[in-house]
Design a protein that fits this description.
Elements (H helix, E strand, L loop, with lengths): L1 H14 L6 E2 L5 E3 L2 E5 L16 E5 L2 E10 L12 E8 L4 E8 L4 E10 L2 E8 L12 E6 L1 H4 L3 E4 L2 E4 L8 E5 L20 E5 L3 E3 L1 E4 L8 E4 L5 E5 L9 E6 L6 E10 L10 E3 L12 E6 L8 E7 L5 E15 L2 E7 L7 E7 L2 E2 L3 E3 L9 H10 L5 E4 L2 E4 L7 E3 L3 E2 L5 E2 L12 E2 L15 E2 H18 L6 E4 L4 E4 L7 H20 L5 E3 L3 H4 L13 E2 L14 E2 L5 E4 L4 H18 L4 H25 L4 H9 L6 H13 L2 H17 L1 H11 L5 H24 L14 H17 L10 H7 L43 E3 L3 E3 L8 H4 L3 H19 L5
Parallel strand pairs: 29-37, 31-41, 39-40
Antiparallel strand pairs: 1-2, 2-3, 3-4, 4-5, 5-10, 6-7, 7-8, 8-9, 9-20, 10-19, 11-12, 11-16, 13-14, 15-18, 16-17, 17-20, 18-19, 21-22, 22-25, 23-24, 23-26, 24-25, 26-27, 26-28, 29-30, 31-34, 32-33, 35-38, 36-37, 38-41, 42-43
Helix pairs in contact: 3-17, 4-5, 4-7, 4-17, 5-7, 5-8, 7-8, 7-10, 10-11, 11-12, 12-13, 12-14, 14-15, 14-17
The structure holds calcium ion (CA) (3 copies).
Length: 851
């Protein structure tokens, strides 16, 4: 087989008949099987370096190379400086793209010109002024290769044989910190243990011609430079999310064209991407619509039919159905067709065959959706309980984190989108211990901070689930007294109540101890923010004492000079206080009869924060009151006083709240229907018949909005194009459809509720794996950006953000590389939102026609 590939390769490269790279209308270089993008995606400087930018190669459908740019490090990390693109010129005539790059911190400008040369591109680096002295020997042109697509494959440097290592184990040196280029906002990604030196990887190979993946035609690339030395590094030496890096150092004291690389990605002759048959890996219930969406290469011929095969109980297969393929048409890079097999209703095990492509098997049965939330509620959520020891059978997920508590943050900037203002807005001095905050709460996501806004959402999501469905499931042992959680051990209390309690415990502590809500309880130093491993080992458990030397421990063993304690960021935000007030009102209701003391404390804080929050907002007297009102109509994460009024009415029964809500809701629906319809639906159980009637035309309008997505894309739901893929939007859409169908089944038909389930469980672009880790699916995704991502693993029940869009026309979801948060991270707010979606969906699916 390998010989055949080699023959084919040499044949085509000798004859030269295959097409050359050409700049296409979307301004990237293209030939069949190869796309070379030149800053279609720029470095955004927010979270710095998402491995998504610069010169990129999409090689036979997979984005395997990126990061082509002038960089200041051998193997840049997430918080190393990134260049700002100050201009981008596309020259169709000369088949070239030129970008100008700038580092403001060093007043350093450069230009990179990429030109098509047959089947290769030439990358030329220009300097109008010499490299600044501080960056001589540091600044270079880098390009990065995705480890999971190259490890264990061969490479040659100047003919020397090598193999890409599966795990990082090359060599490093340490250098004085004074030689390290500045990192993002002056933060440091590393703890130098008092040595004042940083670690710098040494190259694995150097030379002038590199050929990678000689043993894999779909990954093979030849890179050469006559006038610069190529150095190959393993970026994983200093960061698990690092890539293999190839770089050439910019020469000192030189201007003009300083060097040139020639990059030739190999193309498999007449390569056509294998069809991606999207279907629900969890399966289908007999009566639901069943439509597979098949994603096809634009050069692929559309077949007339596809077939459904049944695997019988004796293991033999038989054709159950053959049906017409219908064409939906082009959407971004690919062409889409559909295969409708709704008529197949017999329970059984099936697979789809389209041409030579067969899917894995799936089940048609009335029970397929019964377990869709179990992994999330039994495993993912309890593992994310902060300030607890979490055990599962033989395994400890984490010890009890942050035993030393939280310090008042000093006025400071932060690396995870927070800041502490000039004052603390509390009675505490900077660095003073704020007592009582190390209780309850949930880890935010792939990191370990408590995002207050997210934790408010979590409690609200869990309460909504509790109040509507009263799930009695008890698979988790929770002891607040022992600070101990044991998975799969019932303790007589419904888990969801214990989760509501756990979230409320931290939020009430914030309100009581700080006087208002913290924006976040988060890491104080970047070198422990990117922690991967046991949460309990992020800090040393000892109180930070500034009078001790770094790494010194006090004689009583209780304090240390290591500045690793977490901080509370306490700048007061009255809007956040109002959101907390809303949540506390609901929490007091949910916890009544289970934890009356906490319920009382929550209600007390709700009333106080409501009053104080409103007064503070009035004082702020925003100049543009219309802008403020519009802000309130936005809904979603900050629905403002409208949802607060509804929640307070539900909590207290006081008329004034519902009168205010009634004034607000209709205007909100007239202004931005899709964003506010959920709040309107949430109110239905508490309102009279007239309200439900008045809402009808809006539901009719929303039903049109739902159906319109069938024209917008082949999957029939909102697809996000941001740098965080759109699962939250998709889940919101699904929840709203579920509720709309629940209350208005004559307007929104039951068939609509399956749109989001199909997408989540495998009917989406790029691949057909379920986005929910380990849920009853035949083929769930295998890797996620959880806090165990360094193990290329997942935490069961996690929901991935999903399909990340890369400009101008590429969707992707890596399933062999967990580290891109925009496509693989799960968040506590998102995953509890999934619990609402899943609970409401199951409830509707299992209900026999009730209207
Ligand atoms: Ca976070
Ligand atoms: Ca329990
Ligand atoms: Ca400490």
């Amino acid at each position: 087989m390998k010989q055949l590939f080699l023959c084919l390769f040499f044949l085509t490269s000798l004859t030269g008949t295959a097409q050359d790279l050409q700049l296409n209308d979307l301004e990237y270089f293209e030939r069949q099987g190869v796309n070379v993008l030149v800053f279609s995606n720029s470095f955004n400087g927010g979270f710095n370096d998402e491995k998504n930018s610069g010169i990129e190669i999409i090689h036979h459908g997979v984005r395997t190379v990126q990061g082509g740019a002038i960089r200041l490090n051998n193997t840049p990390e997430q918080w190393d400086l990134v260049p700002k693109m100050t201009s981008r010129k596309v020259d169709k005539q000369n088949q070239s793209v030129e970008v100008a790059l700038r580092y403001d911190d060093y007043d350093f400008d450069s230009r990179v010109v990429v030109t098509a040369k047959g089947k290769a591109v030439e990358i030329a680096v220009y300097l109008d002024k010499p490299v600044p002295t501080a960056l001589v020997g540091e600044a270079g042109f880098n390009i990065e290769f995705l480890p999971s697509q190259y490890w264990q494959k061969t490479y040659l440097m100047d003919g020397r044989l090598n193999r890409f290592p599966r795990y990082a184990a090359s060599q490093t040196v340490t250098r004085p910190n004074s030689e390290k280029p500045r990192q993002f906002k002056g933060f440091k990604t590393y703890d130098d243990r008092g040595t004042d030196r940083f670690v710098d990887p040494l190259p694995m190979e150097t030379g002038h011609e590199l050929v990678v993946a000689t043993d894999a035609p779909e990954r093979m690339i030849r890179i050469s430079s006559e006038d610069a030395e190529l150095k190959l590094y393993d970026g994983r030496m200093i960061a698990q999310n690092g890539w293999y890096v190839l770089r050439s150092i910019l020469p000192a004291n030189k201007t003009g064209k300083v060097f040139t690389w020639v990059v030739e990605p190999h193309a498999i002759p007449n390569w056509i991407r294998e069809p991606n048959i999207g279907f629900s890996q969890v399966g289908y219930i007999p009566e639901q619509p069943k439509v597979a969406v098949i994603e096809l290469d634009k050069n692929d011929k559309v077949r007339q039919t596809a077939s459904l095969w049944r695997i019988n109980n004796d293991g033999k297969t038989e054709k159950a159905y053959e049906g017409e393929i219908t064409t939906w048409g082009p959407y971004y890079k690919y062409n889409y067709v559909k295969f409708d097999f709704s008529s197949v209703k017999q329970p059984g095990i099936y697979y789809i065959q389209y041409g030579d492509t067969k899917t894995n098997d799936f089940i048609i049965d009335k029970s397929v959706y019964d377990k869709i939330t179990d992994a999330t509620t039994d495993v993912w959520i309890p593992i994310h309980m902060n300030h607890m020891y979490v055990n599962e059978a033989y395994r400890v997920w984490h010890g009890e984190p942050f035993k030393e508590g939280y310090l008042q943050a000093p006025p400071s900037d932060h690396f995870d989108l927070h800041a502490q203002g000039q004052t603390t807005d509390t009675k505490y001095q900077p660095y003073e211990l704020i007592p009582g905050l190390n209780i309850g709460g949930f880890f935010d996501a792939g990191d370990f901070d408590i995002e207050t806004g997210s934790n408010i959402n979590v409690v609200q999501n869990l309460i909504r689930t509790w109040e509507l469905f009263k799930p009695q499931r008890d698979e988790t042992f929770v002891s607040q007294q022992q600070r101990y959680v044991d998975l799969h051990r019932p303790d007589g209390t419904p888990d969801i109540l214990q989760f509501i309690e756990h979230g409320t415990l931290n939020l009430v502590a914030q309100a009581e101890q700080i006087g208002h809500m913290a924006s976040t309880l988060s890491n104080s130093v970047l070198d422990n923010y990117h922690h991967l491993g046991d949460a309990a080992s992020i800090t040393d458990g000892l109180h930070y004492d500034r009078s001790l030397k770094p790494y010194e421990v006090s004689s009583d063993g209780k304090r240390s000079g290591t500045p690793d304690d977490m901080w509370a960021f306490t700048t007061r935000n009255p809007r956040l206080d109002l959101r907390a007030a809303t949540m506390f009102a609901a929490a007091s209701r949910a916890l009544e009869g289970y934890n009356d003391d906490l319920a009382q404390r929550a209600l007390k804080q709700s009333k106080r924060l409501m009053e104080e929050g409103n007064q503070l907002l009035k004082k702020q007297k925003r100049v543009d009151t219309q802008a403020e009102e519009d802000f309130n109509w936005l809904g979603g994460f900050d629905a403002g006083s409208m949802t607060t009024n509804l929640q307070l009415y539900i909590a207290t029964g006081e008329k004034k709240y519902i009168e205010d809500f009634n004034k607000q809701i209709w205007k909100a629906l007239d202004t931005r229907l899709p964003f506010n319809i959920q709040t309107a639906l949430d109110a239905v159980p508490y309102m009279d018949d007239a309200y439900k009637q008045k809402l009808r035309p809006y539901i009719e309008q929303y039903n049109k909005y739902i159906k319109d997505f069938d024209q917008q894309n082949p999957y029939g739901l909102p697809i996000g194009l941001g740098n965080w893929a759109g699962v939250n939007m998709v889940l919101n859409f699904g929840i709203t459809i579920n509720y709309a169908h629940l209350y208005y089944p004559d307007i929104v038909s039951k068939d609509e509720i399956y749109r989001v389930a199909n997408w989540l469980y495998g009917c989406h672009p790029y691949h057909n794996y379920s986005f929910v880790a380990a849920v009853g699916a035949a083929r769930p995704k295998a890797v996620f950006y959880g806090n165990n991502r360094a193990d290329f693993s997942f935490i069961p029940g996690n929901v991935a953000p999903g399909l990340l869009f890369r400009h101008p026309d590429h969707f992707e979801n890596f399933d062999d590389w967990p580290f891109l948060w925009g496509q693989n991270e799960g968040t506590i707010a998102g995953n509890t939102q999934y619990v609402i979606f899943g609970s409401s969906f199951k409830n509707l699916v299992t209900k026999t026609k009730s209207h």
